[in-house]
Fold:
Amino acid sequence: MAKTGRPKSDNPKKQLIGLKLTEDEANKLKEYASKHDMTITQVLQKGIDMQYALEAEA
Structure:
């Protein structure tokens, strides 16, 4: 009988980080994510990648 469920990830996401934002910051984040058809997590991950890319250029 075949296994059911989701396949195991090669790089599982196990780290959970909390973030406190002002109401204005949270609204900006949600608006950006909605406008670009992204999740909030995807926006934050892209932001991290962008910061690393900027640092690599310097």
Observations:
- The mean pLDDT is 93.
- The chain is about 55% helix and 0% strand.
